[in-house]
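An instance as discussed:

___
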Amino acid sequence: MTTFVLVHGAWHGGWCWVRVADRLRAAGHNVFTPTLSGLSDRVHLLAPTISLQTHIKDVANLIAWEELTDVVLVGHSYGGMVITGAADRVADRVRTLVFVDAFTPRHGEAAFDLRAPEANALTLQGAKANGGWRIPPTSAESFMVNPADRAWVDAKCTDLPIGCFSEKLHLSGAVDRIADRVYVRAGAYPNPTFDKALEAARGDARFRAHVIDCGHDIMVDRPEELTAVLLESA
């Protein structure tokens, strides 16, 4: 049995992993799908003080308090920021890092540093209309979610505190000890940041790289294929 911790991206919640989690559990594995503070079923905690560090602590504390070891830690999109920071804090408990169409940040970088300028401009515009600190969700259509699931995804997504994108990541270097890594790119979702991350992964001996032909929310659109990739790390 392998322990998987599946971390969602911006505006989402643990709900987005249900199809993958069900399949992993059916294969006999232990699966955690935490919702990050202030989002989804934890929206009652939404506050301007929530930042990237809050979310890193959410995941690092889950792993520590549940006494998890040999973890396959998976992050989607913004979740790549979170799992990198969390793994740096509990590196001895993490076996594999899996980035699902996700940021692969380095020390001192924020999500705003990695995103395209035009994407940041839209984000800041949206935040300005919401008190300056709440970023409204990007639509499922923009993420190229399959049409049948767009209404479901849009209904579940909630605002994101701007500190999650603006706060820079601080790493001790412990995360560098985790040598088993996977990058999964959504082939039907144009995004220069994730294209760059895929190419970097292909040139890094620590990574196994995959491309799945669907929109950004791979866990929604292609749960069978994503589960198969994850099971390679089991």
In short: The mean pLDDT is 97. The CA atoms of residues 10 and 78 lie 6 Å apart.
